[in-house]
Amino acid sequence: MLMISVLLHISANLIAHTPDNSFLGFVSEEAARADVREEELEPETYKKDRMAVVYGKQDYMWQGKSEYVEVISEELETHATVYQPPGHSSNLPGSITNHGLLSQEHFLRLLRRAKVFVGLGFPYEGPAPIEAIALGCVYLQPKFDPPHSSDNNDFYKGKPTTRQISSQHPYAEEFIGRPHVWTVDMANRTDVKPFTPREFTCEGMLERVRGYITHQDFCSKSVPTWPPESALRMHLGPLGQSCVSVCRRSSLVCEPALFHHLNSPSAFTRLGLGCASMGQEDYHLFPAYNPWGRHCGLQQEPLLFSCAGADPSHRRLCPCRAHPPGQVALCPDCI
Ligand SMILES: *[C@@H]1O[C@H](CO)[C@@H](O)[C@H](O)[C@H]1NC(C)=O
């Protein structure tokens, strides 16, 4: 009994659950181990087949998951290691090859041949996904939405924890992630349909060409007048961020033709910035604000206006604008 209870305490801490507990962990199969490397070089002993292995050694773990497993078995030869009592027939779908319980050695050999290790939602946070990933499998696991917790889940009910479990293996989801770990909505069967962004269709191309022919002026030396100032959404970037990413974070695009509207003392005032000094320079990140010394920098050479580029001591003034769906080059009201 003592032995069992000690094991339970250790196993509860196999994975770094929360910072409340220290994380002792365990040692997994190592991807870079020398003998594994050698085997990798031998194509016969380390060759991936079009094969998936399902994580779940007991029948009940598969309950309600047959549709999900069937979708996978349509694409990949699907293997299981579910315990089968002698004399009982398996409840698994007919398309699954069941090996019964395997020794660790044989289980690892199976994983070594597989491309995908499929989690069904239980057990939580076990060591097997870590081993599968170390052997070159992609770990496909269900996302829990809403997260499992002691409020909504029998396994966690009564356990002294307020954790919210976001997937079968939150460590794999958060600390390993893609390409090794794919956390998916198991019930969502939306097909990936063919898709062409509007700007790559004939109509989208013609719309864009028309916009350019009508509005762009290559002969005038004055500042651009298109897109119009009404399209401007002025943003003040944080230190070290380019205008490309500042605008993208607001689902907008950076429009270099609007920079000249920001290149004046009044732009700094409109953004609530008080300038202790103001200067004009040839510097591709300008107009920008330097909080140390509250220096406001204006661009001297309009040819240097650029959406790209950032440095850690400047907050850039960014000319963002919206765009219609599937037509990044144009703005909604300037076609
Ligand atoms: C299913 O997935 C698609 C594609 O990711 C998404 O657009 C859709 O909202 C999802 N449906 C549900 C019910 O979550």
UniProtKB/TrEMBL annotation:
Give the source's domain of life in one word: Eukaryota
Q: Where in the cell is it found?
A: Golgi apparatus membrane
One Gene Ontology term from the biological process aspect of the record: protein N-linked glycosylation
Q: Which InterPro entries match?
A: GT18_cat, MGAT5_Glycosyltransferase
A GO term from the CC aspect: Golgi membrane
**Where mainly located?**
Golgi
The protein's UniProt keywords, in alphabetical order, are: Glycoprotein, Glycosyltransferase, Golgi apparatus, Membrane, Signal, Signal-anchor, Transferase, Transmembrane, Transmembrane helix
The signal peptide here is 1-16
The metabolic or biological pathway listed in the UniProt record of this protein is: Protein modification; protein glycosylation
Q: Which family does it belong to?
A: Belongs to the glycosyltransferase 18 family.
- Report what the protein is called: alpha-1,6-mannosyl-glycoprotein 6-beta-N-acetylglucosaminyltransferase
> What organism, scientifically named, is this protein from?
Pleuronectes platessa
